[in-house]
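Hey L., structure's done. Input below.
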Amino acid sequence: MKRGRILCVTSNFPRWAGDSTTPFVLNLAVDLQELGWQVTVLAPHAPETALRETLEGIQVERFRYLWPSKLETVCYQGGALINLRKYRVNYVKLPALVASEYFGIVRRLIGREYDLLHSHWILPQGFTGTLASRLFGIPHVTTVHGGDVFGLRGAVLTRFKRFTLRHADAVTINSSVTERAVTDIVPDLKELHLIPMGVSTRQVNADPSSAELQSRYRRGNGPLLVFAGRIVDEKGVEDLIRAVGILVSRFPDVSALIVGEGQDRPMLEDMTKRLGLSDHVVFTGWVEPEDVSAYLAAGDIFVSPSRKASNGWIEAQGLALIEAMVAKTPVIATRVGGIIDAVRHEETGLLVNERSPDEIAKAVKRLVMEPHLADCLRNLGYETAVTKFSRKSSAVAFSRLFEKMIGVKKRP
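Output:
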């Protein structure tokens, strides 16, 4: 069943097959296409990326915003917020990015027939999408992921956010904490929809590769802890490492597997050596997205120690911990942001306070000493993940919203 054509605009998207960029925008596009939508993705160009290509059946087009291409460094490799914080010169490049994105949208809306414009993140995509949709009269749905509403602050940026939220035809948020942040800016939005981003529900706990990974990384009979995600300050990996230091006295064979890459990895590896934990903490580096689930299933406990960052960023949803639930790995997570939507204390996981290695260590001890509790968390966590946070349920919810917005726009 053919439903319509969507122009999806995003600043974060895999630069090529197997890229380290989190693929949730690509996954949603693929799932929508399977439901009958024809999706074209517009994203910023970056060094070594193709201007046009097809990824997993999705037509991807990238707009240039600076020459030579080595200057196009605002997006990707952790995301725009991290790149702006790390390299202040990127702020000078923002006007070129925003203007080029806007004209990229306009050029495509002039040349082709699209039924709906879908923008990811309020700024800049939501803003440029709102301007273009008002010019062409095309319905526009903007999706708030969290970093855009938590990490971009100040009076001027808030005005841009308010304009975007008020003039988009519909706004989607991924968690209750994102919803509160949006309604703090615009309290009376009529078309505000909670649609979490989905994860794959493919079972991996019996995958032979998981058993091989467990055998490779487990120390004796000690618990194997797993973290997966960007290795940056706000993910709280430091607190997990310090928790391992606390646990060693009780469980000499405890080990932690840090899956992922990020700017804080060298600093955390040095800290691990200083604490004498090099035999207990392993940094795997970058792992292909399709292989991460095997690492999650290999762990005895998944730890999500996210914490609020100095720039206001908080974990808006936490997809990795939901993927761990699908893998039937018990979860320990901090009471931060949208994590509490998925992790209910002593039901689908254990919650601890942020920046508290002691509490993480106590929670690990509890799960090791109470296997019945671990089994309960494992089973209810899995049930919650597959029923409320699957890719299919997310795509279906977006599809219904898109059909509604197109229908509203077509009314005389």
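The radius of gyration is 21 Å. The chain has a mean pLDDT of 94.

-- N.
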